[in-house]
């Protein structure tokens, strides 16, 4: 967050990335990172439904509104315009903040913000369809190897000594292994790599090279990976899990929460009912059906509560989004990269002259908000310039109104 003297812009940044199935990463949000209520005592804050009840998107937005108003007052900057920024869940909050608090923020940059990824708005297969296309666009052979591997993993696990074959093939630590765990481990690598398929090296979730999806497929396709399927898969997974080369084995029983993300389970059971994980016959993942009933069962087991499947669209909207935002919203930029699976639930077309969609065919998850790099491709530099120009016009217009 940055504040300046009276009359100068104040910017509020909310940064995040959301796990495709159940977990987000972000900073400066209630209950995450160091923003823990109840005196900073995480055990108390996460202890039961009464304390976790304060964890919601609506409450987070109210936090920001209160903070901005007080900050501007304390900085003697009451006339300073505020623009909010966010990526992923933070991008959703940025867009919703502009809609709910137009008197506090003059505009929002909502990057990779899947505000339409809710029930009755998006197919449960949309997310995995994008991932499938990411890998298939790099190599048909790569796609076919991965697609055929799930059955081979399961069949191997069911054979005598098969689990040890899997353990040795994938360098799994000796504490725990199962077919489902290996498949989940591999799926996570494929999903996260697709999300963070950046054009430059990154260390966002794990250390990764530039264009990591391409690197995964190259590892599968090249003969040096070995002729067996598991050897090829291990070479691909190693790109995501061990690009730094320091891992000696991979722990499938690691349930630690190093980023402090446990609260997302609560949000995924109370308001963020996002239909993600279904896979059709063409999918790179095993065919499966996303069922709301499965989410209900999980939430009853975890928290003894019933999800609110339509709360987000009731609170913030989503249905008939073009007509609604054209009538009621302004000064929002929605950025989406089409290699990002979350783009399936994003705003991909302009709503009006001031609610603008910027779409990058080569873009990944909120790549526009990443630090600039000398190796950034020209298309990314152009997008950032476009965003800056649009935001500059909002600020100029604000000052024109202020002096009238």
From TrEMBL:
Keyword Glycoprotein: yes
A Pfam family: Peptidase_S28
Record keywords, A-Z: Carboxypeptidase, Glycoprotein, Hydrolase, Protease, Signal
GO biological process: proteolysis
Domain of life from the UniProt record: Eukaryota
PROSITE patterns listed in its UniProt record: PROKAR_LIPOPROTEIN (PS51257)
GO molecular function, one term: carboxypeptidase activity
Keyword Iron: no
Family: Belongs to the peptidase S28 family.
Stated name of the protein: Lysosomal Pro-X carboxypeptidase
Originating species: Senna tora
Phylogenetic placement of the source organism: Eukaryota, Viridiplantae, Streptophyta, Embryophyta, Tracheophyta
């Amino acid at each position: 967050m940055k504040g300046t003297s009276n009359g100068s812009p104040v910017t509020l940044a909310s940064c995040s990335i959301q796990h495709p199935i159940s977990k987000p990463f972000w900073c400066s949000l209630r209950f995450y990172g160091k923003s823990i209520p109840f005196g900073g005592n995480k055990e108390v804050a996460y202890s039961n439904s009464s304390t976790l009840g304060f964890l919601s998107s609506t409450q987070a937005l109210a936090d920001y509104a209160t903070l901005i108003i007080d900050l501007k007052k304390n900085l003697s900057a009451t006339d300073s315009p505020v623009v909010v920024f966010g990526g992923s869940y933070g991008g959703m909050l940025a867009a919703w903040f502009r809609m709910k608090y137009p008197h506090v923020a003059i505009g929002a940059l909502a990057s990779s913000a899947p505000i339409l990824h809710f029930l009755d708005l998006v197919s449960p297969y949309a997310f995995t369809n994008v991932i499938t296309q990411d890998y298939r666009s790099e190599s048909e052979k790569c796609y076919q190897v991965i697609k055929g591997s799930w059955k081979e993993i399961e069949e191997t696990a069911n054979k005598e000594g098969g689990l040890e074959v899997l353990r040795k093939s994938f360098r799994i630590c000796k504490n725990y292994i199962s077919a489902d765990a290996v498949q989940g481990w591999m799926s996570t690598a494929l999903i996260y790599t697709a999300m963070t398929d950046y054009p430059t090296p990154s260390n966002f979730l794990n250390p990764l090279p530039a264009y990591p999806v391409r690197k995964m497929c190259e590892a599968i396709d090249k003969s040096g990976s070995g002729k067996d399927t598991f050897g090829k898969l291990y070479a691909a997974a190693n790109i995501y899990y061990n690009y730094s080369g320091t891992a000696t084995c991979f722990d499938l029983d690691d349930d630690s929460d190093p980023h402090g993300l446990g609260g997302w389970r609560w949000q995924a059971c109370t308001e963020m009912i996002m239909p993600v994980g279904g896979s059709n016959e063409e999918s790179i993942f095993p065919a499966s059906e996303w069922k709301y009933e499965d989410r209900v069962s999980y939430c009853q087991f975890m928290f003894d509560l019933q999800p609110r499947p339509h709360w987000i669209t009731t609170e913030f909207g989503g249905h008939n989004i073009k007509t609604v935002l054209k009538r009621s919203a302004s000064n929002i930029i929605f950025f989406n990269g089409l290699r990002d699976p979350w783009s399936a639930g994003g705003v991909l077309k302009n709503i009006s002259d001031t609610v603008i969609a910027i779409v990058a065919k080569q873009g990944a998850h909120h790549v526009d908000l990443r630090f600039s790099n000398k190796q950034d491709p020209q298309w990314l530099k152009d997008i950032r310039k476009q965003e800056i120009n649009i935001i500059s016009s909002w600020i100029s217009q604000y000052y024109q109104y202020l002096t009238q």
